[in-house]
């Protein structure tokens, strides 16, 4: 919309509004007086928009405008009494003596506690809630240009651990609420968007894979549309989500229009640039050659057979690569990074009349990754609408559709990955053959072959829809019926031409489409009643029926006539496959909350869930919870001048469940596809376990909340203790059975932790405000019961063992380097007889550490001075470990020969007796005690990954309204955000916020293998409200 | 409003009533285990599943055995010729062999109980005979790699099974082979088990059991049959398909790929090249007087290194050669030297059949030639001829020469306890019948 038409449009709107206003005027008396003023927050002095100003003993009322101002004509005579009310504030009566404008201060403190609020299924008074619940409003979201809303609240909710797995936009984020409760059944919280249960499972099915990289489904929701996020943490809050509540519930509420409000158009645009602050440091070609020769000589390879010797000395079986001095150095690493750009444009229109209110939103976002060949784009559309049919019947709908095309590339794991080609290929090899074709080394693809030929895309389409009708059956009793759907379609398309490793011998194309649909019907009764003065009761009763389907079709074509043909229809060999699965969930739930004298509250709730996934005898699960709260500061004995002015204690205990296992895990099954000679074959797939049931988490929570200094500082602290039993595990059964495991309920796990949130309004006066939010949390995870340790199949350095944390590292404990021999010293723990035997064997591995932080949180400071605002957001994590798997490969002391590149740090190795503070003597042969100096899973590569990051800094300026009024713009804000400006860490890899494991992996987390570091970005933007 | 309430309550009641039905969902990609083998067609499908099980373990078994010997090394660790074996390391195909056994057990126990008029006794025998053969092969692969193992014959019973001795395990192999021999006909089909495959496996069995006369007898049954003959050039048996060289060739197709090529071929050819021929062995293969035309098993790459191409069809259609006629020549040669009345001329004739096909100088038998010289020549010939088919390690162990041959590369092999593989740690740990670790092989 250009400026002219915007102005015209706004003009039309004003005409429209002024058409309505005379209606009020017409009902007024003849002898009119004029009343005007401003309504502001008593503490912050910020204007309160859409506050109601009503003249006492009349029905005449107006709403304040966007500057908090009100003005109206009335037939009353001075002095008049006005009642000013605003949601979340104490209503006030003020006497207005004359026509001079008045400023009305409304007190916010406490008042919002007594209003009815809806959280999920429940509707009750805020001060009657006894659960551990944290809400984050849109204003508090990080301004960093990240694609999903969870990344925007990193560190803001104590107990909610959020960690981006890589610096690539739109890829998965590890989210753990109050630790992890499960090994196999998933640890991701349940996301509910406007009452729609969102599927967040991984839909990536592409055969060739992306090397551990997964898409983040939450990036399919436009963060601009979100009004608030409410995190339900304890059993009291989550038990009503029953079999899906164990990992916590994250309620996402999107924006809706206000009734009787002027239509507003918000337009925003931003542009950013991102770079990679730090990458890996590799040796030069001659350094590589010299080190490999040292290692080979130590391995006993004679001088005339060392890999780096004059090319003339060729011996069959022992290739000669030339002398070390002859080697060149080729940079493969910097070509894969770039200065990435990101753009985001969004429009939102909100408004409403007395019956209908609406929100329309749309955005376009394009975020390039600093790693080439990775792009994220989102087009999203939203319509939220509410309409009152009558005073008692209301209908509404929430809808969003988003389309997210991604350009992707296989990154870390696997030989054809971009990082293997760029980072792991030894630097001395040329980039091209003499004929100009790509030079490929060993198992790796050529970096330019990938950069020039990669053709790999994924297209996500997601539609979240719901409609509801609610009716007030009796005073205080409402019935709400909701019907919702979450549809997603994930289409992956890859083409590998003959320049690529995967394209051998004549090209390969894959095309996979996965669709998923969840239909949910929900019936809900809410009842609220105040008996007498002192008794408040709220009751909820409901039922849901949920149906899930997933379908997947995959096609592969190989053998293309030439590289011009890219679609499977042109392939010589075309194969296809399809599969599907379904599950059902039937639930009933109820709860009651009782509040006495605003001081004592008690609530109970229970949910019963039945899932088709479980054994016939264990279909139903029951998840009760009870909570109690005591507002001490309301007691008469509580000193009115106490430092803590508002103090509430609360406690709760309850059960929640986790049902995320395979849809048919309890059945004995045979599968097809066990073919031979192109004849169809069958074979047993899994043994039956009719006793399979839910994982159950019992959680105990105590919390204290209070405010100091007239509400300028608020504190919330919680302690929790979770104990999960009946862990769903692929319990090992003897392999001689022909099966490797049977899904069963064995094992137990606990999580205990503390959380603290401090919110402080340090300074607030007419011109300057300074707010601080500080969070810290700590979780201690422990596997309480496990029959036998489980070591990960692919990454044997990860193990789960009773008495230790989940995601523990099982390694040889390295004690340093023997300065006389240069050999590594490994702690000798045990032997075949259970005692140290002087030999380093598998018996000497132990759990050396785990990936859990001792503490994490954020420190956020917001300053505002006149029109300027400054937000500084620091995120920190302390005491967590990462396994630096990249270093494991690259700091190899030359023992990997000509097969892999070498990290610069490898040059600091033991050369002569007496050397200290060095890496061991380069050799691939085992030492006399059986230990290995390199290529062995020792604690050397487990690093402390504590860090402090300046996550984002935003400087904003709101233009003075006098400048804007002639453009008919009511508000304009410009801002610059810098993210990741500094990072303080002792971690040797590029970024300690790294993880190559999928977010559903129950054993491996905190593995850094070729992870794209978090980018450093500068973003500038503008927001206009018309 | 009352009418509205009634509607709501009725709706809730209907929802509740339909609950139990709602919760009974059926899988779409699997069937229940009770419905798996019910007639001739489903029995045949289950048998195909056993062959699929063999496809599932054959290549991991080959590579584990070859890495244990001196023919093949890990690409990333080429200076280590003979790897140290540990219980936590890659332990061969132990687990997947039992998967195949489990499938065979289902066929062997279910098929005789089926009362389907359309499922004739002849068809049943054909299916059962193949299942017995495949189970024999599986237990044979286990015993030669791990020593005696737990013998599972009932598909639903896997606890309370004690480990059998090596003798008992071999006895089970022979029992299954005898069954297969009576049930299967003498038809030539190189991709599925028939009586000829039983003969060939029996020849191998008797060779391993030092029953020389029988070894020679069973090898002769094939060597005298003109359906089976050495092909020339050497490479044609693996570049082609189902040549007369093959007795039992495990076939693959573009729809049922053998991904073994990815372990051997370079990235430029779509592989990962996890394994490469050991450098000293490469030099021997390339020696025209030793490897001869068997040098066609490997190929040189632009950077000067070598890769194995026996399984090198990039469309995944390379076969795995379970039993081929060249082995029968070498079995008979060895047996003829060792049998009670040695036939050195015959032995050398068999050996030279192989040498002549490879284009290397023939072995000259002189009156001064000792039996041991011939045996050593046969051992070396087996190393080249059956290079990447998982024979080398077992051959050297079988003849008691592992300390002498592998010891110089890795001291572990001077200790006889390490002549068999460790049972994979996971298999030992997860077995309630293994309290105290008694199922693990000594030394691990």
Structural notes for this entry:
Chain A: Residues 913-933 are annotated as: Disordered. The complex is a heterodimer of chains A (1026) and B (444). With 1026 residues, chain A is mainly beta. Helix content of chain A is 7%, strand content 46%. Chain A contains 8 helices and 52 strands. In chain A, a hairpin with a 3-residue loop joins strand 24 (508-531) and strand 25 (535-558). Chain A is globular, with a radius of gyration of 32 Å. Residues 6-29 of chain A have low confidence and may be disordered. Chain B is mainly alpha-helical. Chain B has a domain at 39-184 and 412-444: Serine Threonine Protein Phosphatase 5, Tetratricopeptide repeat, CATH 1.25.40.890. Helix content of chain B is 48%, strand content 6%. A two-stranded antiparallel ribbon of chain B has the order 2-4. In chain B, strands 3-7 form a two-stranded antiparallel ribbon. In chain B, helix 6 runs antiparallel to helix 7. The radius of gyration of chain B is 25 Å and the shape is globular. Chain B starts with a helix and ends in a 15-residue tail after the last helix. The relative contact order of chain B is 0.12. At the A-B interface, strand 25, strand 26, strand 30 and strand 31 of A face helix 1, strand 1, helix 3, helix 4 and helix 11 of B. Strand 30 of chain A pairs antiparallel with strand 1 (30-32) of chain B.
Number of helices of chain A: 8
Can you tell me the CATH topology of one domain in chain B? Answer: Serine Threonine Protein Phosphatase 5, Tetratricopeptide repeat
| Main sheet: strands, sense, barrel of chain A | 22 strands, antiparallel, barrel
What can be said about the biggest beta sheet of chain B? 2 strands, antiparallel
The helicity of chain A comes to under 10%
Provide a count of the helices of chain B.
Answer: 17
Distance between the termini of chain A: 11 Å
Number of strands of chain A: 52
- Report the helical percentage of chain B: 40-55%
Shape of chain A: globular
| CATH architecture descriptor name of one domain in chain B | Alpha Horseshoe
**CATH level 4 superfamily of the largest domain in chain A:** TonB-dependent receptor, beta-barrel domain
The low-pLDDT segments of chain B are none
Query: What's the quaternary structure here?
Result: heterodimer
């Amino acid at each position: 919309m250009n400026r002219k038409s915007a102005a015209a449009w706004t003009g039309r709107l004003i005409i429209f509004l002024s058409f309505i206003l005379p209606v009020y005027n017409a009902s007024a008396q003849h002898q009119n007086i004029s009343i005007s003023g401003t309504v502001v927050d008593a503490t912050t002095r910020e204007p309160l928009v859409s506050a109601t100003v009503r003249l006492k003993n009349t029905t005449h009322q107006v709403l304040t405008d966007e500057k908090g101002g009100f003005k109206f004509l009335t037939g009353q005579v001075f002095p008049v009494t006005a009642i000013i009310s605003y949601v979340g504030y104490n209503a006030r009566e003020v006497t207005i003596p004359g026509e001079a404008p008045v400023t009305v201060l409304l007190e916010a403190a406490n008042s919002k506690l007594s209003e009815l609020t809806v959280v999920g299924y429940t509707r009750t008074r805020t001060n009657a809630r006894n659960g551990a619940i944290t809400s984050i409003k849109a204003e508090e979201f990080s301004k960093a240009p990240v694609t999903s809303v969870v990344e925007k609240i990193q560190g803001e909710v104590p107990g909610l651990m959020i960690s981006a797995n890589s610096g690539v936009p739109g890829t998965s984020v590890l989210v753990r609420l109050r630790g992890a409760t499960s090994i196999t059944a998933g640890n991701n919280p349940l996301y509910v968007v406007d009452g729609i249960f969102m599927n967040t499972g991984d839909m990536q099915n592409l055969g060739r894979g992306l090397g551990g990289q997964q898409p983040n489904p939450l990036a399919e929701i436009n963060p601009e549309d979100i009004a608030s996020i409410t995190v339900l943490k304890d059993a009291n809050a989550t038990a009503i989500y029953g079999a899906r509540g164990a990992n916590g519930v994250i309620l996402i509420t999107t924006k809706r229009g206000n009734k009787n409000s002027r239509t507003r158009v918000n337009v925003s645009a931003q542009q950013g640039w991102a770079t990679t602050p730090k990458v890996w440091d590799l040796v030069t070609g001659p350094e590589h050659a010299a080190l490999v020769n040292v290692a080979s000589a130590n391995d006993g390879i004679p001088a005339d057979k060392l890999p780096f010797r004059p090319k003339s000395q060729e011996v069959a079986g022992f290739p000669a690569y030339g002398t070390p001095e002859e080697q060149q150095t080729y940079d493969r690493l910097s070509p894969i990074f770039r200065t990435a750009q990101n753009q985001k444009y969004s429009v939102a229109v909100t408004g409403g009349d007395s019956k209908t209110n609406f929100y329309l939103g749309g955005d376009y976002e394009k975020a390039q990754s600093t790693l080439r060949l990775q792009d994220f784009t989102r087009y999203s559309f939203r319509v939220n609408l509410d309409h009152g049919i009558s005073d008692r019947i209301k209908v509404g709908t929430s809808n969003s559709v988003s389309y997210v095309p991604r350009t992707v590339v296989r990154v870390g794991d696997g030989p054809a990955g971009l990082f293997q080609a760029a980072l792991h290929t030894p630097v001395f090899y040329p980039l091209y053959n003499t004929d100009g074709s790509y030079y490929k080394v060993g198992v790796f693809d050529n970096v330019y072959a990938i950069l020039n030929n990669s053709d790999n895309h994924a297209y996500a389409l997601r539609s979240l829809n719901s409609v509801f009708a609610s009716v007030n059956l009796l005073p205080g009793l409402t019935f709400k019926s909701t019907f919702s759907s979450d549809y997603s379609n994930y289409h992956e398309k890859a083409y590998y031409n003959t320049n690529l490793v995967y394209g051998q011998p004549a090209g390969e194309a894959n095309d996979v489409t996965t669709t998923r649909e969840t239909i949910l019907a929900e019936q809900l009764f809410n009842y609220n009643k105040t008996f007498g003065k002192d008794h408040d009761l709220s009751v909820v009763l409901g039922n849901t029926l949920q149906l899930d389907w997933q379908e997947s079709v995959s096609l592969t074509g190989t053998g293309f006539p030439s590289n011009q043909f890219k679609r499977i229809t042109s392939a010589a060999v075309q194969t296809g496959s399809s599969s599907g699965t379904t599950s059902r969930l039937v639930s009933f739930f109820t709860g009651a909350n009782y509040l006495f004298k605003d001081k004592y509250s008690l609530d109970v709730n229970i949910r019963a869930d039945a899932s088709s996934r479980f054994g016939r005898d264990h279909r139903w699960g029951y998840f009760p919870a009870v909570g109690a709260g005591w507002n001490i500061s309301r007691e008469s004995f509580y000193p009115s001048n106490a430092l803590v002015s508002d103090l509430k204690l609360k406690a709760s205990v309850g059960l929640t469940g986790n049902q995320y296992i395979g849809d048919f895990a309890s059945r004995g099954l045979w599968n097809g596809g066990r073919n031979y000679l192109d004849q169809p074959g069958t074979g047993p797939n899994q043994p039956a376990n009719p006793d399979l049931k839910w994982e159950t988490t019992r959680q105990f929570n105590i919390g204290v909340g209070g405010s100091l200094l007239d509400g300028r500082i608020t504190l919330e602290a919680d302690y929790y203790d979770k104990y999960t039993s009946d862990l769903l595990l692929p319990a090992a059964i003897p392999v001689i059975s022909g099966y490797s495991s049977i899904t069963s309920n064995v094992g137990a796990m606990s999580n205990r932790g503390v959380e603290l949130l401090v919110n402080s309004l340090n300074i607030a006066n007419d011109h300057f405000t300074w707010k601080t939010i500080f969070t810290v949390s700590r979780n201690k995870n422990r596997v309480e019961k496990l029959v036998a340790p489980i070591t990960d199949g692919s990454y044997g350095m990860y193990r789960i063992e009773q008495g230790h944390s989940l995601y523990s590292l099982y390694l040889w404990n390295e004690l340093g380097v023997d300065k006389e021999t240069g050999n590594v010293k490994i702690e000798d723990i045990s032997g075949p007889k259970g005692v140290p035997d002087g030999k380093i064997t598998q018996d000497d591995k132990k759990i050396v550490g785990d990936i859990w932080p001792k503490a994490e949180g954020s420190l956020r400071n917001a300053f505002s001075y006149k029109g300027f605002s400054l937000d500084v957001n620091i995120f920190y994590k302390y005491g967590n470990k990462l396994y630096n798997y990249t270093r494991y490969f690259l700091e190899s002391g030359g023992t990997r020969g000509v097969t892999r590149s070498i990290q610069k740090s490898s040059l600091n190795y033991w050369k002569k007796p007496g050397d200290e503070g060095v890496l061991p003597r380069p050799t691939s042969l085992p030492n006399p005690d059986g230990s290995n100096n390199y290529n062995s899973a020792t604690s050397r590569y487990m690093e402390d990954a504590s860090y402090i990051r300046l996550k984002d800094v935003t400087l904003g300026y709101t233009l003075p309204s006098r400048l804007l009024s002639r453009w008919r713009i009511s508000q304009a804000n410009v801002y610059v955000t810098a993210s990741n400006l500094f990072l303080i860490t002792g971690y040797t890899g590029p970024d300690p916020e790294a993880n190559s494991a999928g977010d559903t992996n129950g054993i491996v987390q905190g593995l850094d293998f070729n992870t794209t570091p978090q980018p450093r970005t500068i973003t500038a933007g503008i927001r206009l409200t018309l | 409003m009352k009418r509205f309430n009634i509607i709501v309550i009725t709706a809730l009641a209907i929802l509740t009533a339909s609950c139990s039905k709602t919760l009974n969902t059926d899988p779409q990609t699997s069937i229940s285990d009770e419905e798996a083998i019910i007639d001739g067609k489903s029995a045949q499908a289950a048998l195909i599943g056993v062959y699929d099980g063999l496809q599932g373990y054959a290549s991991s078994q080959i590579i584990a055995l070859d890495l244990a010997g001196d023919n093949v090394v890990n690409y990333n660790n080429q200076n280590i010729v003979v790897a140290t074996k540990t219980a936590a390391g890659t332990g061969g195909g132990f687990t997947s062999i039992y998967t195949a056994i489990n499938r065979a057990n289902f066929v062997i126990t279910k098929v005789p109980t089926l009362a389907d008029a359309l499922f004739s006794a002849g068809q049943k025998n054909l299916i059962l005979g193949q299942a017995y053969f495949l189970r024999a092969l599986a237990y044979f692969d286990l015993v030669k790699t791990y020593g005696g193992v737990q013998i599972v014959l009932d598909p639903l019973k896997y606890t309370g099974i004690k480990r059998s001795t090596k003798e008992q395990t071999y006895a089970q192999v022979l029992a299954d082979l005898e069954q297969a021999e009576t049930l299967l006909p003498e038809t030539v089909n190189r991709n599925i088990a028939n009586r000829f495959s039983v003969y060939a496996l029996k020849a191998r069995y008797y060779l391993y059991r030092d029953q020389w006369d029988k070894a020679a007898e069973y090898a002769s049954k094939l060597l005298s049959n003109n359906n089976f003959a050495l092909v020339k050039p050497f490479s044609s048996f693996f570049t082609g398909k189902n040549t007369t060289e093959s007795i039992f060739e495990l076939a693959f197709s573009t729809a049922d790929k053998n991904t073994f090529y990815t372990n051997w071929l370079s990235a430029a050819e779509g592989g990962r090249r996890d394994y490469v021929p050991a450098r000293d062995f490469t030099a021997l293969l390339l020696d025209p007087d030793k490897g001869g035309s068997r040098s066609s098993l490997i190929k040189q790459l632009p950077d000067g290194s070598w890769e194995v191409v026996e399984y090198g069809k990039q469309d995944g259609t390379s076969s795995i050669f379970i039993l081929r006629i060249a082995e029968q020549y070498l079995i008979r040669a060895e047996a003829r030297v060792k049998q009670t009345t040695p036939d050195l001329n015959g032995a050398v004739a068999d050996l030279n059949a192989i040498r002549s096909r490879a284009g290397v100088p023939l072995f000259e038998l002189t009156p001064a030639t000792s039996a041991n010289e011939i045996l050593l020549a046969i051992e070396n010939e087996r190393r080249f001829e059956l290079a990447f088919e998982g024979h080398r390690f077992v051959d050297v162990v079988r003849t008691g020469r592992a300390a002498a041959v592998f010891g110089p590369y890795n001291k572990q092999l001077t200790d006889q306890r390490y002549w068999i593989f460790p049972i994979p740690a996971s298999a030992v740990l997860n077995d309630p019948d293994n309290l105290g670790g008694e199922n693990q092989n000594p030394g691990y």
